[in-house]
Structures are given as C-alpha cells and as structure tokens.
Amino acid sequence: MKNALIASAALLALSPLAAKAEEKTLTISVYAFAQDDFKTIVYDPFEAKCGCKLVVETGNSVERLAKMEANKASPVIDMAVVSMADALSASRKHLIDKIDTSKLSNFGKLYDLAKDPNGDGMSVGYTFYATSIAYRSDKMKIESWADLLKPEYVGHVAFPNVTTNQGPPALFMLGQALGSDHPDLKAPIEALGEKKDEIVTFYEKSSQLVQLMQQEEIWAAPIGRFSWAGFTKLDVPVAWATPKEGQTGGMNVMVVTKGSKNRDLALQFMDFWLSTEIQTKLAEKLVDSPANKEVKLSEEAANNLTYGEETAKSLKLIPSAAALDNRAAWLKEWNEKVGQ
C-alpha cells in the first residue's frame, strides 16, 4: 500500500496538472492599442516558446503607472511599455530597475536613439514615430516649421492642442524655428497666441484632420507619422514635410518593474519583442515603427511608418526631463496665451 501511494505521488508530479501548477507567469502592462495583432504576433508565440503564461493588463498611461505605484511594495506587474517621459517618471519614483542589456541578444540591433532613451539605463526603446507637417503641396511650400505662421498660410493651418501627444513636440520644433530651444516653450506658445484667431483649429484628435484637408478647410497640420496613412488616400496632393530644423516625434520604451520576481523572464520577453522577426511582423501590420535597424519593410509599410536609419538620426525628441519638469508650465502658458 505504501509503495502504491509513493507511485501515485510520483505520477501526479509528472502529470499535466502538476506541470500547470509550476507554469511560469509573466504579467505585462501595455497600451490597449492593437491587442489582437499583439496577441497573434507577440504574445501567443512567446508563450509557446517559453512554456509560460502571459497575463496582459491594458490601460492608459496614468492608470497603469498609478497601479505600479500603488503596488510598489509588492509588485503585481513584471514589465511595462510606456512613453520615454513616463519611464523617467517611474524611475524617479523608484518603480523600475536598470535593464541588464547583456541579456538582450537583440540590443545591438537597435537604432542608437532606442538603446538608452533617457540616458539612465532604465529603459529600452521598442518603437518610435516622427512628427512633422502634412501639407497640401499644390497650395504651399514648407521648408521650416515657422512657415506655418506665414501670413499667406496661417489661415489654413490646424495645430495640435498642448494637451495632446503631438502638441509639445510641434511647439518644440516651432520654437527651434523661431530661434528658441528653451524647454518652457514660451516663445512658440506666444507666437501661436498672436495668431490664434487666424488658425483654423487647435485640434485634439488627428482623425478630424483628413476630412478638414479634403474639404480644403486646412492646408497643413503637424501630425505623427502613424496618422499619415489617412492623408495618402485623399484625392488631393499631400506631402510630408522635411523642415530644415528637422523632425521631432516620440518613443515608447520597455521597463522592468523594481522588485519583480520574474526579471529574467521579463528580459526574455523584451528580447523576443525586439527581435528582427517580431519587429518586422508588427511593422508590416502597421502596428509599430521598428526600433530594430535590421528590419526590412515593403514599400507600402515603409511609406506609412517612421522607418530607416536616416529618419532615426534626424529625429529631435524632447528630453524627458524637460517634458516632466515643464508640463504644468506649458499648460498654464497655453491657457493664458492661446486658451481653449
């Protein structure tokens, strides 16, 4: 009888139920965007490869960072993807750890701007986008960000509200064109304030711009490259500007939660996501622009994404510290000079 019990216990230890009980679990926190594509391209293949289970939590940045902070003493999230500025905010609050890039076999394949976006070793970029000006090439010529404020053009311009993702980057580049690179953005906000009654709209959703351009209510608007595809379908000539001051944009990064009990698994997942194969599949689906410089894209995908080494080198991103330290001042200045 005793031997039978021992044999039964041994069989149970080898059973699927026991194996499932010992299954590794990785909890990730991501944007809600394109989750069906991420499941097919990233999540399911990684689970099959690692023999583990992925728990995916989604939400906006504010909600997700708040959850990380609320559970700081006993983390429930192992790895997250956030913006550059949010990564620095998390670092300042001691919510994330340095990333051991020696464990990322694909780290060397990244564009330089993605390897250590905040210069503190706490994040790795996985996608970025350019912000420039979409404009009617038959109506105007854009050589500088300051051209948006020319008397003959300003009455046909839509500009992003400061509260949007595109607002501060566009203001940053407008400031460069006006000879001011101060992070308080006072100079460009003041310049917009002087023209506020002439500008068509200070938009909050880029989706409204395609119709405005089709109806010829606007000729130009600063946009993120991820919004460009809609403009290419218009039956009017629209071009993507390459101003002499350069393009700006944004970057999303990966971070590892401080105190995570699954650090090695989190790094494996990050490395999988950064691989040439996965970055290519996401890019071809127009989900993310690739941070992996080995990715080769079809012409159609390349035209709709931020792609290529030359583009990566040309991007002038707002330093995260400048964004965090000046957000309140930007909003105050905007409300005073531009209003809603």
From TrEMBL:
Keywords: Periplasm, Signal
Signal sequence bounds: 1-21
SUPFAM superfamilies in the record: Periplasmic binding protein-like II (SSF53850)
GO cellular component: outer membrane-bounded periplasmic space
Keyword Nuclease tagged: no
Gene3D superfamilies registered for this protein in UniProt: Periplasmic binding protein-like II
Protein name per UniProt: ABC transporter substrate-binding protein
A GO biological process held by the record: thiamine transport
Taxonomic source organism: Rhizobium altiplani
Classification via Pfam families: SBP_bac_8
Molecular function GO labels: thiamine binding; thiamine pyrophosphate binding
InterPro entries assigned to the protein according to its UniProt record, in alphabetical order: SBP
